[in-house]
Amino acid sequence: MHRTNHVPRNTFWMQILSWGLGALMTVGSAMAQERVQPPAPSDAGTRPSTIIVPIGGTRPLQMKPPQPITQAENLNERVLEVRTVQNTPETVLLLGKDAGTSRLTLTGLDRSTQTFEVIVQLDVDYLRSRHGQSCRGYFGHLGDGQRGLGRQRRRCSRRGQ
Asked: How far apart are CA 119 and CA 79, in angstroms?
């Protein structure tokens, strides 16, 4: 009978042995390399505090700990306006002008800086309260005997009022 396996058995075991030795050499050289210390954490990597300001609304802002603010840098003047408060150098007023975001950096008297992410958006609670007042104000002066009043009142009540 003729041999059916054309690969000699010695070649198979030699390949297994060479793969194993190659893996050991790779792991050994990786372990022998000098370990690099990770960089120390810095303030540049910290995430800024988030403040929400309604469109057309104002929010006072102070540094922590409170100290006089010497400079305020606003990156998006279209969205946010920053004003100083008279006789209170520790406080600035944030005025929401248009929907969007801005980054605000405050510099204190001791040259420390604090960065804030300011989000200017619609004040949903204010809109809900105004919607309820407008429904009651518009339909409140009509008497119950007038035509079409029931349908208008039902529309207003479906919206949550």
From this structure: 9
Opening angle at CA 89, ends 88 and 95, nearest 5: 80
| Domain positions in the chain | 46-124
**CATH fold for the domain made of 46-124:** Immunoglobulin-like (2.60.40)
In the chain, the amino acid numbered 88 is: T
Query: pLDDT tens across 6-23, in order?
Result: 656 667 777 787 777 777
Q: And the tokens for 81? A: 């306006």
Record the tokens describing residue 76, joined without a space.
């998006």
Sign of CA dihedral 3, 6, 8, 9: negative
| pLDDT per residue as tens digits for the range 59-113 | 999 999 999 999 999 999 999 999 999 899 999 999 999 999 999 999 999 999 9
CA angle (82 as vertex; 79, 84 as ends), nearest 5:
165
